[in-house]
From TrEMBL, chains A, B:
Main enzyme class: ligase
Xref: SUPFAM superfamilies: Glutathione synthetase ATP-binding domain-like (SSF56059), PreATP-grasp domain (SSF52440), Rudiment single hybrid motif (SSF51246)
Organism of derivation: Streptomyces prasinosporus
Protein name: N5-carboxyaminoimidazole ribonucleotide synthase
UniProt keyword list: ATP-binding, Ligase, Nucleotide-binding, Purine biosynthesis
Length: 363, 363
């Protein structure tokens, strides 16, 4: 999707891909298949690139530092990206710059988890491995000291967090360029199902203006303080007592910003490319009153293409974005966007299409 | 741009390109370099394709028939496409189905041109080679029998047409699918400079509703009668006495429809892909009150990239579409789209950006 956004600007991508079947490898012309964890591979790949960016956070921080030392601009740079790679580093930094977070602490073992729980309202407690988690992986909600054993088995540091009593989840998406220009997308509501983002509504319905502004300012401030270049998604909890707390950070175009492809004047992908190239940023404002994104998860039918017929005929305004992935049950294989003036209608259209593509609606 | 529109639907393109440097070859992954005039090349290329379409009209009609005979769906098919390839065939067909055209006749030599002129209002007369012309090439406006010699030198049939006293040029863009579904984009005004499209305004300002409807119906009717599959652009003259006459036909996404990338709910490229694949068509209606497209022509500066800084900073809503072509003076190398509620503002922004990218504005 970043390649797609780069085409109109004549931006040529070279892709380092795990396999020739990866989504991006299916559409980018210049593909190198290799392992991003191997420094020699990265160095060979980086030769001749003007700048390097990512569609995930998993490239080892020390490899990015090595590329920078070789003179290759890496955006976002390792000093920023580490905050999206390591939840321990992220929490420490957000504490230091005064950004409100759930109560948290690195914990050593199940007994330490029990102590952490006792310091607050007791169990349940959220445990996260500090590196490598996403979409609910690497995250446990534990109700007792016995249940707290599992996260420690991998032998990586574990972060304990209070289980926040939230009303809903929000996301504040911002983009920042190397010369410090920044833009903020409207704060969106993100609805999760089984720990995976299901629906995003832009802008977040019935969000108090002051709270929305505070969330945008918070995201812009985090981008500045962490030296982010490119897109930053700040996932937030809106608490019952009217605060916003930072849940997670992502430094790349993010699922909570996919609505912008069809709903904003400039999409998150276009602005990420512009930021990474230090070009002036585009207008992030919405083009419609409401835009809804619903993720398409893999279902029981491997062929989603035949579902296009129904979905496109039913809703000529529907925007389908499929990733070319093999369909596996529960895997994110695409998303749909709808927009319009009537939120109920926009939500219904997006949900119907995503459900039909998945195979859970067969009317 | 068609590839760009196919990405979200997971449509995989295989490209037959003249050179590895062609615009499309820079962004499509699967490229075969070869000559579209060579049937063996076409046949080898077509093997394994589900369907074939074009970004120009120059593939020989008989080769397309051969591919069809091989069982490869060609969309638009040769029986339709020939009307966009051969202006003589096109005029004969439009006459037969009762579509108003400028007065015209195939002419044999300069004396025949003089006779054609005398049958109407005399010189000037427009002469066109029946095949191979575009962007003013293959077209002559001749003021005398002496000037009429040139077009006959190539030894191809020549079509004579009255020089229409037009108020302005319009274009009616429609898309038709194999099962006969069709959509019509709003009729646009197309402003030419030196025979090359310069500016497109969507919808055409101050266009009488009845005339707009007549133009849309005419384009839909042509698409149906000619059996067009995919995008059809009907270039029109709006005459001083309130009629619309067909100037040219193009059967592919067309310059007069580029505004739709940022100005319509579904772009001409997305709808062309959907039609070619016999998928239901998307909504062609505009998303903004006014959308303006201005072509970017090559200027004296080979580096257009540095102009991005000024253009993007001046207008955060600007949409730049560059084709990755080598910059040659006067060559179409890209276009810009702007949209909004105030036509003067939208026009000024597009013209400024295109002029700055070309180098004719350096403020």
């Amino acid at each position: 999707m970043t390649h797609e956004a780069g085409i109109p600007l004549g931006i040529r991508f070279k892709l380092l891909s795990d396999t020739p079947q990866d989504s991006a490898a299916q559409v980018v012309g210049d593909v190198v298949v290799g392992d991003y964890r191997d420094l020699d591979t990265l160095r060979a790949f980086a030769r001749g690139c003007d700048v390097i960016t990512f569609d995930h956070e998993h490239v080892p921080t020390e490899h990015l530092r090595a590329l920078e030392a070789d003179g290759i601009p890496v955006r976002p740079g390792p000093d920023a990206l580490v905050h999206a790679q390591d939840k321990g580093v992220m929490r420490a930094k957000l504490d230091a710059i005064g950004v409100p977070c759930p109560r948290h602490r690195i914990v050593a073992d199940p007994e330490d988890v029990a102590a952490f729980a006792a310091e607050g309202d007791g169990f349940p407690v959220v445990l996260k491995t500090v590196r490598g988690g996403y979409d609910g992986k690497g995250v446990w909600v534990v109700g007792s000291v016995e249940e707290a054993a599992e996260p420690f088995r991998a032998g990586v540091p574990v972060l304990a967090e209070e289980k926040v009593d939230f009303v809903r989840e929000l996301a504040a998406n911002v983009v920042r360029s190397p010369h410090g220009q920044a833009v903020a997308y409207p704060v969106v509501e993100s609805r999760q199902v089984n720990g995976v983002c299901d629906t995003v509504v832009a802008p977040a319905p019935d969000l108090d203006e002051t709270l929305a502004l505070r969330a945008e300012e918070m995201a812009l401030n985090i981008a500045k303080e962490l030296g982010v270049v490119g897109h930053l998604a700040v996932e937030l909890f809106q608490t019952r007592d009217g605060r916003v707390l930072v849940n997670e950070l992502a430094m790349r175009p993010h699922n909570s910003g996919h609505w912008s492809q069809d709903g904003a004047i400039t999409s998150q992908f276009a602005n990420h490319v512009r930021a990474v190239l230090d070009l002036p940023l585009g207008d992030p404002r919405p083009r419609a009153k409401w835009t809804v994104m619903v993720n398409v998860l893999g279902g029981d039918y491997p062929d989603m293409y035949s579902a296009y017929l129904h979905c496109m005929a039913r809703d000529p305004q529907l925007k389908i974005h499929m990733y070319g992935k093999d369909v596996k049950p529960g895997r994110k294989v695409g998303h749909v966007n709808t927009y319009g003036d009537d939120l109920d209608d926009v939500l219904e259209r997006a949900r119907h299409a995503a459900g039909y593509l998945r195979g859970t609606i067969t009317e």
